[in-house]
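TASK: fixed-backbone design
INPUT:
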């Protein structure tokens, strides 16, 4: 009898149940009225009294062990996701809807700008966001201590006033001219940084696209025609264009480029400050000093350059009136560009 008790205890300890059916097997074998444990208690009736005293507690322990194990097996089954969820899994339910993502409006507009310029022979160039004073300022004809440097509130890298976050994509022009021989025809999209307080109209991080064309006999007429082509492609045939004389250290002559306001179509509104025109870019003929700073012979070559803000183009195209929307990642804003192109 003692041997039997030991065997049953071993069987209980070693039993494993991974399905409801195995759990039921355990119940029938060790817990039910017809179980081996019940049989032991029945046998106990026919055993002499003095042995009963010894065996009784042992049988009670077996009964307890069977009940404890049964509880543990139930808990184990409930913790197993496959079996518990298989009871609740309804394969006929329609799947949860998966929402398609959308490209960021700035990415959509950047891609469109690239596409327009690639079609007329421009390639795409890239340059560093962290750069030195030479590439961001000096090579571009910003004299030392010139107030124009202060106009672009620069973020300097601590302890080294020579290293900074680029304030414009014009730094890529410099690298391009230094490392390649004309003819050069390239656009340079990228992130730029200025130490500005964040508001609806200003941000410390924004995006520009720089354009550069250097070759023999490049003229201001080429600049005008190229920008004219871009504006018609981006905003439509009826868009008006004007060049306004301006100043940049790296171009001579320089011009700011305005287009007819896309919101009011020239009638006057808040965005165009009731002028009917909105500025989209700075531009000009590359200053001969910049060409020679970059190792290009200004007697032989001329070039034009321009720089425009991607946020501004996006604002005009999609009427986004608060710059902060671009960086907040609010899906209610982003979702609206799902079908945009
Ligand atoms: N770098 C100027 C800015 O950030 C924009 C610019 C103006 C770029 C004239 C040019 C240019 O290439 O020719 O305000």
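OUTPUT:
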């Amino acid at each position: 009898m003692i041997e039997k008790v030991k065997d049953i205890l071993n069987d209980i300890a070693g039993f494993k149940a991974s399905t409801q059916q195995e759990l039921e097997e355990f119940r029938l074998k060790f817990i039910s009225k017809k179980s081996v444990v019940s049989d032991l208690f029945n046998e106990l009736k026919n055993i002499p009294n003095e042995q009963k005293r010894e065996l009784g507690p042992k049988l009670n322990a077996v009964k307890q062990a069977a009940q404890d194990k049964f509880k543990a097996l139930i808990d184990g089954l409930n913790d197993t996701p496959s079996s518990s969820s298989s009871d609740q899994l309804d394969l006929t339910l329609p799947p949860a809807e998966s929402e398609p993502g959308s490209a960021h409006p700035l990415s959509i507009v950047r891609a469109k700008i690239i596409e327009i310029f690639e079609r007329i022979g421009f390639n795409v160039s890239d340059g560093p966001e962290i750069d030195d004073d030479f590439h961001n300022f000096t090579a571009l004809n910003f004299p030392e201590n010139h107030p124009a440097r202060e106009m672009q509130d620069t973020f300097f890298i601590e302890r080294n006033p020579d290293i900074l976050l680029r304030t414009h994509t014009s730094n890529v022009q410099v690298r391009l001219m230094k490392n390649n021989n004309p003819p050069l025809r390239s656009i340079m999209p990228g992130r730029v940084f200025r130490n500005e307080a964040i508001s609806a109209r200003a941000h410390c991080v924004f995006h520009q696209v720089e354009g550069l064309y250097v070759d023999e006999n490049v003229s201001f007429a080429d600049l005008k025609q190229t920008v004219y082509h871009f504006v018609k492609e981006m905003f439509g045939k009826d868009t008006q264009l004007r060049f306004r004389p301006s100043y940049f250290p790296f171009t001579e002559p320089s011009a700011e480029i305005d287009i007819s306001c896309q919101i009011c179509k020239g009638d006057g509104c808040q965005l165009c400050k009731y002028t009917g025109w909105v500025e989209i870019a700075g531009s000009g003929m590359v200053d001969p000093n910049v060409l020679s700073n970059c190792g290009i012979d200004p007697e032989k070559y001329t070039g034009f350059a321009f720089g425009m803000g991607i946020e501004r183009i996006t604002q005009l195209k999609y009427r986004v009136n608060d710059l902060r929307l671009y960086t907040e990642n609010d899906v209610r804003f982003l979702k609206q560009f799902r079908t945009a192109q």
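COMMENT: Residues 115 and 122 are 9 Å apart (CA to CA).
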